[in-house]
Structure formats: structure tokens, C-alpha cells
Write a structure and sequence with these properties.
With 427 residues, this protein is an alpha+beta fold. The chain is 30% helix and 25% strand. α1 packs parallel to α7, α8 packs parallel to α9 and α8 packs parallel to α12. The radius of gyration is 22 Å and the shape is globular. The termini are close together.
Length: 427
Amino acid sequence: MYEYVIDGGYPIRGTVTASGNKNAALPCLAATLLTKEPVILHNIPEIQDTNVMIDILKAIGAKVEKLSKNNWKIQCENVKNIELPGELTKKVRGSIVFAGPLLGRTGKCEMMPPGGDVIGRRRVDTHFLALEQLGANIHVNGHFSFTAAKLTGADIFLDEASVTATENAVMAAAVADGKTILQNCASEPHVQDVCKMLNSMGAKISGIGSNILTIEGVPELHGCEFTIGPDYIEIGSYIGMAAATRGQITIKGIRPEEIRPLKYSFAKLGISWRIDGDELTVPNTQELKVNSDLGNAIPKIDDMPWPGFPADLTSIMTVVATQVEGTVLIFEKMFESRMFFVDKLISMGAKITLCDPHRAVVSGPSMLHGDHLVSPDIRAGMAMVIAAMCAHGTSRISNVYQIERGYEDLVGRLQALGAKIERVEVQ
């Protein structure tokens, strides 16, 4: 087991290149099951979650070769086992996206319920409803059993705009017999990446980027070479870190169109940046003052499906708000346990009122002090890292496996930016 030891009070300064999008990499890895031919994937982030997904592919018969850092060659010519190893699926929520491609490839999939972040109830009903309408039979008895004699296109309305359910449905529909119309689907950049990869494999998907996808099923897909896009959640995390520590950072390899939904929420905290091509720079001249709504009303930062502000950044924004002058309401609508980490921020000296499981009022700026913290999930863990970097004194963060599930070489990259952080082994 490892902990982070962080000495606060050191602004970050320097340049970093955005990692590949974790939430695109996981389903793109699963999509390699839809062809017997080799698939080459570039810009796969080297994080715990992708390691687990690759181990699952190996366990069911895929040939996996690491070509170089972040680049992999995968060939699923012989899929020998349609039962996913339970000790692996419980480690990562994204393992659920193996269901769609395995159904499309073999007509079967057996798996234990997926694991991942503990941020409240994370229903899988939408996956089941979509796959059932494509012709799957699903049994739940301590584990999930998916079977399908034949997948047939259907007109499907998702009961929620679930990212992973959309990806599962699209991957299964890509090789189903006939046309599938998928309405109320998710349209985040990582969903778009999966659809673009499938099209490069010979799928026929239109409406990419919207909440209505049309998929013309094809008999089989072929190999491809595809590059995963940048992780805009990681980019947002570094933006918040730079502002909160009064530092300056340049982030290379961004997609400017994916940063637009972040602009207005960060602006409510007095944070801005400049973009030059695929580079984003956060200057160290931020005002860090809450911009009130009309009538001097307290502003609200809330999440919503794409192209709204992403839920995965609400934890980051909560910590940043503790270093900003003024009061703001953070409204996390999706997960009822995500905001419970604020009790640790309060113990560090933050002025936060947790109104209910979804809403927190933050007043700042607060002088934080070092503490012993435990990371409950990827994003709250990163928020705790930022809090520790702002705090006076030394902080220790346990359960860093959760953080490293989503952030590539975090300690090394932060050290290069001037942060005083060490990864130490503990008994």
C-alpha cells in the first residue's frame, strides 16, 4: 500500500501534456473484441483502470502487445472465455462495457457486477434495457449472465443518458442485424471517440455528437488504428490546481471545443485561461473572486449531461472554491455520495455547509491546514491532493490506488511542476 505525503504552499509552474481520455480508453479497449483483426490504439493512459481492462482482455484470450508508452496492439482472434474474471471486474466500473461487444462477437457474456468508485448508487438497469431490446436475454443471480441467439436492430429510448449504457448499446448494435436508432443517448467526447473508432472499423454510425445515434448493423468489423483523445477531466483538474495554488500552467494537446463547457463554471470563481491552438495556459494572475449572478445572487455550479459541466469535476470545483473570495453553491446532481468527502475539507479548515447529499455551500477563502486524508474515489482523491497542495503544513493521503485509477504518473508530473509530493510505501 502507498500514501502520498504532500507539503503545501508551493504553487505549480510549468508545462504538462494532457493524457488520453480514461473514459474513452476503457470502451475502446473493449471494442477490440468486435474484430478478429489487429487493432492499434494510441494514447492509452497508463493508469490502473486501463491496466485492469487489458488484463481482462488477456484473460479471455486476446493477444496484447505494448508497442511503446501509451500505444498498444490488440488482436482478439481467439476469444476462448466469455466469463470475465471476477477479481478484475470488481476493480473497475468500466468492465461493464465488455457486455455489448462480447454479445456481438460470441452471443454470450458472464460477469460479476462491476466495481469502481463508491459515490452512491450506480444503476446498470439502462444497460440491461438497451441490450434486451437488441435481443439479449439477461439473468441476474449474484452475477450477470447475457446471452443472445441473434442481435437485431431496434428503436431504443434510453431511460437515462448513461455514458456506458450508450457505449454498450452502440457496440452491440454495430454488428446487429438491421438498423438501430438510439435516442436520449450520451454524447460526451469519450462516447464520440468510441463511435469514431467503430466507424474506422467499418461500422455505420451517424449522429455522432448528438443525443440520437443511428447505427446500421454490419456483418463484421475489421481492424483499425485509432488515437484516443485528450482527457478533459484531467485538464480541468490541472486548471483548478493551478488556480487554487496561485500557480501557472500550460497544458498541451487539448481539444479547444471540449474545454468550452468548463469555461463558464470556472469563470464563476474568477478563473480564466487563454488558448493558442492545442495549448491552454492558466496565468498566475487570477482574481479568484466569486462572480455573483444578477441581483448579487449566490451563483451555482451544477453538473449536467454533455455539453453541460461534467459531474467528474464537481469535487475539484468544491476544493477550488475554498480558495476563492465569496460564496458559491456546488450542486452535484448525479451521485448521492460524491459530496460526502467534504467532511475532510471541513476538518482542514474549509468553510463548507453540506446542505444534503447533493448540495454544498462553500465560502472562501479559507486557510487550510495539513491533515490525514483517505481517498474515497478518483475525483475526490484528486480534490484532496489539491487541498493538500494549498494547505499549510504536511498532509498524508491514503488509498491512493483510487486516485491512480484515473491520473497517469500523477506524482512524477506534479513533482516536475514544483509540487512537494512523495509516494511512500506503508505497512
